[in-house]
Amino acid sequence: MNIGIVCYPTFGGSGVVATELGKALAQKGHNIHFITYREPVRLDVFSENIYYHEVTVKNYSLFEYAPYELCLTSKMVSVAKREKLDVLHVHYAIPHASAAYMAKQILAAEGIHLPFITTLHGTDITLLGKDPSFLAPITFAINQSDAVTAVSESLRNDTFTNFKISKDIHVIPNFIDVDFYAAKNNADGKCHSKLYAPNGERIITHISNFRKVKRTEDVIKIFEKISKQTPCKLLMVGDGPEREMCEDLARELGCEQYVKFLGKVTTPEKILAITDLFLLPSETESFGLSALEAMAAGVPVISSNAGGIPEVNLHGITGYTSNVGDVYDMAKNCLTLLRDNDKFLAFKFSALQQAKEFQLEKVLPLYEDLYKQVVRK
Ligand code: GMT
Fold first, then answer.
1. Could you tell me the distance, in angstroms and rounded to a whole number, from the CA of residue 94 to the centre of ligand 1?
2. Where in the sequence is the domain holding 346, given as residue range(s)?
3. SS3 296
């Protein structure tokens, strides 16, 4: 099939899922056309069956805000015609679903049928989408999609709660290539733990885009409590608006010497390979791809119980979940695992087993079946 994929080309989970999906589909022989404003971070364009089409936004002195959605629509139309796309798969509803709807109508006027699938990822529904400034067009575009998917049961329910949706929503979870993480655990793909924990301290990791919704301040508060009880180091991976506040908070709480801010890292698997526990105290999280990545590396997860996280991190089995903001409980749960080695090893094993439930080979056919269904219609 010739498949167009539209996503945000950034470090965010939706872009990562879209890119990994495209790469896996290309390996199965589909022609994958990425339509994005920048080359997606995890994409290697020097790969068979992968093509990258850049959306360029023209600036004109009249515009205070350049009309990105129109430029995207235009690119979708031209790529669809030239590459004879069978289907367009847009990740993150805003503004990709409405642009896809517009492209579909333009092509229909020329006698070309292009079905489109919208995959909902989280904040497009739980935070932004329900904002009155987006609500009407996003509801419309979701309902006009030929198929809609959500990455968890929780997100599916939230979508029905927040929007008037007349379509079915298929749950297709985030996925992972477990073998890739296993290889990093065995080989020299690991970074050297001595670099961060020279005296054998336990390594706690958080990876995110440091937005408010991630509650990164809770990560620091939890860590400060653990660090008083057991020798450990905290690796803060990623960057975003809350980073400086976290750096200040670590200083205020007097644990800054044990905390390392690494910024954006293109190979998080190297960090996960030396990590003992992963922290994800988010306010909302439709799925929690970073938790799944940690689990694929055999790392137990201490998280909040928000949104779709409990569908991934099984309380008392692969880690622990607590109410949002309950930093005492999360710190207590970390210490339970760090102090009981048998339990820790059992949780590590279960984390990996649970990650295998989301193995790429299990999830990929769900998308392929959906493509076939909408193309057949
Ligand atoms: O987590 C983020 O802030 C990035 C965001 C995105 O849209 O790229 O991630 C969302 O999509 C991921 C992939 O489906 C999910 O695993 C994340 O849980 C989800 N984030 C939120 O719901 C906050």
1. 13
2. 178-356
3. helix
